[in-house]
């Protein structure tokens, strides 16, 4: 009889999804809990920079779109929290970890949204980078995570398209609107490129995650694909990506690009980005102010069920 | 003080004539809230015409370790499948 570890890896190799009650290595469970909960936190914190513009969207159509997008992100957070819960962590534990600063979320959401064009740049670049990461995760080895990703990916493509459309309109507008469009691209480009995480040689867990098929491509592979696609898409806008070294390479059939400022990346990851404190304060406040609502709902439910019991 | 809403499983019928299918789970204080939340979370794009919610603790599941013994016996009962029966080609509509 082969060991449980061997059976597990054999299932993964044969593309048989692992389900919650199946045996799995403790580290596989730990890795997934960390990755899925970070991902969930990112969806939830990610609502803040965009939510900032709901009251100031330039038209009713844009406002309706933005509300729908932000509502989708709340849903994404919920699908992912639910997937993580199947691994044995509770929602409260995850929320506590986030609020205590022990859990990470995508560092991109620690940048401010200064102009309306930022909403366009977020849709195009930030959701675009997220999609690049998420599409391979629809085939990740853990069943509940893969199913959550399928649902999320179906919704993401509208996010990216509405963002690009915002920029397209600005790119065809007045001189000021064009400048606003370029400025937003300048500020969001590099943080988006960093969304794929550290270079492969500085991400020690990649090999294990690939073997478990939690990850399907390395950070650098996905980053290159993202840059190649954006370098072409930006031409439709008639704008520039803020990278003087960006150049098509005939030999590799990819775009070469300039050095990434990893110092900035680690600063933001470690809490020193422009909006880290603001984001956490907003999350904690929302959670605390909802406390009485949760208490009331539970008290009401308890009362109704005890009444039903008496009538029995 | 922690107020943990119980966990519910959500099943959605995507259109009349089809079975309800598991869509995911969520936390809610009671069945009414579970259905309302399920509508907001799982049917924002006309994914469903009907929703069932069941509190997760009421679901009894087979044990995955027994999966082999539950399903394998069917493997050697090939006579349960129509292709097991060898019939002449001139026999039509069967
Ligand atoms: Fe999302
Ligand atoms: Fe999105």
Query: Helical percent range of chain B?
Result: 10-25%
Low-pLDDT parts of chain B are none
Ligands (ions, cofactors included): fe (ii) ion
Total strands of chain A: the figure is: 2
User: Largest inter-chain interface?
Assistant: A-B, 27 and 20 residues
Shape of chain A: globular
| % residues in beta strands of chain B | 15-25%
How are the elements arranged and paired?
The complex is a heterodimer of chains A (312) and B (94).
Chain A: H1 4-13, H2 26-45, H3 47-51, H4 60-85, H5 91-99, H6 116-137, H7 143-171, H8 175-194, H9 206-211, H10 219-237, E1 247-249, E2 254-256, H11 262-272, H12 276-289, H13 291-311
Antiparallel strand pairs in A: 1-2
Chain B: E1 7-13, E2 20-27, H1 31-42, E3 50-55, H2 67-71
Antiparallel strand pairs in B: 1-2, 1-3
Residues 43, 73, 76, 152, 156 of chain A line the site of one fe (ii) ion (FE2).
Descriptive labels:
heterodimer; A: 312 residues; two-stranded antiparallel sheet; 68% helix; 2% strand; globular; B: 94 residues; alpha+beta; Ubiquitin-like (UB roll); 3-stranded antiparallel sheet; 2 helices; 3 strands; binds fe (ii) ion
